[in-house]
Structure formats: structure tokens, C-alpha cells
UniProtKB/TrEMBL annotation:
One of its GO terms (molecular function) is calcium ion binding. Pfam families: EF-hand_7 (PF13499). This is Ca2+-binding protein, EF-hand superfamily. Transmembrane segments: none annotated. Residues 12-47 form the EF-hand domain. SUPFAM superfamilies: EF-hand (SSF47473). InterPro entries: EF-hand-dom_pair, EF_Hand_1_Ca_BS, EF_hand_dom. It comes from the Bacteria.
Length: 180
């Protein structure tokens, strides 16, 4: 995985991270909590016609829980089992700025399970599959195609788990909130 070092001042980085918060807050209640991760998992299962009780469904819910636990461990300062916008900004800036790969690592089980569901023929996630995932996870519909194209950096219409993990880590250290 490529090393990504933030090239921005702290205020700029905090603005960017605050933008990312809204993408995690699936229900829009102003907090990131376990329910946001469960909601994302349920929506992905529905999109790809996968049952919750299947091996892939169970892996996705387990991955979502692991991701939530990692997120809470980084950012839930007051221990109330939810992450406020300020906790997210502070936690992300304080703990991830020097090690953005850590965030990708806590997301790995979830992303691995997403890949298993979106890779419908066993040859990698297609751009179309990536667009579906992104749309379900709340990325602006207008941006899904551009983001999927950016993920498919070699242009073979297949996106590997490693490409997804690398892009995920990079997303949290880019200087522009709207960078795919």
C-alpha cells in the first residue's frame, strides 16, 4: 500500500474530515453509531440480493461491527457509543493524520466483505458494481461514475480489494473534500 502523508494545514484537514463525517452518518442524526454501520450493511445486502443469514451476509455484518468498533476506538472520546462530528474530526485528525493506513486497516474486514458481495462473478468488482456500492453508501449519484473510474486505475473494468483499500486510505488524506 502506498504511503500517504497529508499535505495540508490542520484547519484544512479538519474541514475535509468533517465532510467525511456526513458520509458515515447514514441516518443523518448528527452522530455515527453502530446503527449507521448496520444500516449500510443492510442496504448493501438488499442492493446485491444477498441474505443476511448467508455466509457473505454474516461476513458483512461482522465487518460492519469491526469497522464500528475501530471507529469508536479512535474517536468515541466520551464512551457513549456514538461519535459526534467533533469527536470524529478530533479523533481523525489526532490519530490518523500521521497514520492514515490505520483507518484502512480498521475498515478492511468491512471492505473485504463488500468486495465479496459486489464481486458477482469472482473476477473482481466491476465499475458498475463499484458504482452500486458507492450509491448505496451515500456518495452523490453524480460522482459515483467518476469515483468508480478512479478506482479502476488500470482501466480493466475490475477493481481489486487492494485498489479499494489504497483508495480508501488516500480518500482520508487528500486535500480536497470532493476528490474521488
Amino acid at each position: 500500500m502506498t504511503s500517504y502523508a497529508p499535505r495540508m494545514d490542520s484547519a484544512e484537514y479538519e474541514r475535509k474530515i468533517a465532510h467525511r463525517f456526513a458520509e458515515f452518518d447514514q441516518d443523518g442524526n448528527g452522530y455515527i453509531d453502530r446503527a449507521d454501520f448496520s444500516k449500510a450493511a443492510a442496504a448493501l445486502l438488499a442492493e446485491f440480493g444477498t441474505t443476511a443469514r448467508s455466509d457473505k451476509g454474516q461476513a458483512l455484518y461482522s465487518g460492519a461491527e469491526a469497522f464500528w468498533q475501530g471507529m469508536a476506538g479512535i474517536a468515541d472520546v466520551d464512551g457513549d457509543q456514538r461519535v459526534s462530528r467533533q469527536e470524529f474530526v478530533t479523533g481523525a485528525v489526532k490519530r490518523l493524520r500521521d497514520n492514515p493506513r490505520r483507518f484502512a486497516e480498521i475498515a478492511r474486514p468491512f471492505l473485504h466483505a463488500v468486495v465479496a458481495i459486489a464481486d458477482e462473478d469472482g473476477s473482481g468488482v466491476t465499475r458498475a458494481g463499484a458504482e452500486r456500492v458507492l450509491r448505496v453508501l451515500g456518495v452523490d449519484t453524480d460522482r459515483c461514475s467518476a469515483v468508480a473510474a478512479a478506482l479502476d486505475s488500470d482501466g480493466d473494468d475490475r477493481i481489486s480489494e487492494d485498489q479499494i483499500l489504497e483508495a480508501f486510505a488516500a480518500y482520508y488524506v487528500t486535500s480536497e473534500p470532493d476528490t474521488p
